[in-house]
Amino acid sequence: MKVEVLLFASLRDLAQSDRISVELAEDATVADLLVSISTQYPLLEDRVALSRVAVNDRFSCSEDPIPPGSELALIPPVSGG
Amino acid sequence: MSNAQVPFRAQLVRSTIDVSSSTSWLGDPGCGAVLIFCGNVRDKNRDQAVTKIEYQAYETMALAELNQVARSLIDRGAHRAIAIHRLGMLEVGETSVLLGISLPHRKDGFQLLEEGMEQIKKMVPIWKHEHYRDANPVWIDGS
Q1: Where do the structural domains in chain A lie, given as residue ranges?
Q2: Which chain A residues are Cβ-neighbours of B85 within 8 angstroms?
Q3: ipTM of the shown complex
Q4: How far apart are CA B95 and CA B85, in angstroms?
C-alpha cells in the first residue's frame, strides 16, 4: 500500500515538502514504516533515527500496526515551550 | 463551576497570549492560589544573539496533547488548568507558552506546574525555528 506521511520542522526543510509518499506492505508496522522512509528517502535517514511516529494524532510504538487510512506523521524531537 | 463548564482548557493561538484573561478564567472561589508560568522568547541561546523565534506545530495533535497536559493537572489536584501555546513568528520578550492552575493552597502548585511544563516539552508536537543576528536560522531539537 502507499501511505502519506506528514513532515514538520527540520524534516520538512530536508524533504522540501510537508509530506512524503511511502510504499509499505499491507501488514506493515510502525517499525517497518521507519525503515521504509529511510530506504526510500535517504536524505531523511539521520533524522528518522531521532523521530517518533504519530498515528491518528497519537504517538505510536514500533510494533503498532498501521491501519489503512490512518493519518501518519513523523515527529522529530519537539521543542515547544 | 462558576465561570466554565469544563475545568481545563487548551489553546493554540497566533496572537498575543492574554495573561489577564487566563488569570480570570482560573479564578475559583475554593482556590486560594493561582499559579501561572509564562515562557518568553529570550535574546540569547547557545551563545547566539536571538532576534526572533518561529513556532510550528502539528496542530491537531498539539492541541490534543495540550488538552491532555491540562487534564492531567486536574487529575493531580488542580481545580482549574489552562495551557496555551502561541504559533508563528515571535519577537524577543513575547510569551510563547502559558501554563496556569488554580488550587486551594499554593504548596503543591509549583511542582505541578513544573511537571506540566516538562510534559509540554516532551509530548506536544511544536518546534521552534530560532533566528539569529549573526547566523542562519536553526530548528531546535528538544527532547
Answers
A1: 2-75
A2: 80-81
A3: 0.95
A4: 9
- Sign of the Cα torsion B74, B76, B78, B82 reads negative
Tens of pLDDT along chain A (81 residues)?
Answer: 999 999 999 999 999 999 999 999 999 999 999 999 999 999 999 999 999 999 999 999 999 999 989 999 999 999 999
Distance in angstroms (rounded) separating the CA atoms of residues B88 and B56: 6
Question: B93: alpha, beta or left, given left = phi > 0 and alpha = psi -120 to 50?
Answer: left
* Distance (Å, whole) CA B105 – CA B99: 17
Q: Does A78 touch chain B (CB under 8 A)?
A: yes
- Alpha-carbon gap: A72 to the closest alpha carbon of chain B (Å): 11
Domains and CATH numbers, chain B: 8-139 (3.90.1170.40)
CATH number of A2-75: 3.10.20.30
Q: Using a CB-CB distance cutoff of 8 angstroms, which residues of chain B are in contact with residue A14?
A: none
Q: Could you report the per-residue pLDDT of B15-64, keeping only the tens digit for each?
A: 999 999 999 999 999 999 999 999 999 999 989 999 999 999 999 999 99
**CA proximity to B137, closest of B53, B43, B56:** B53
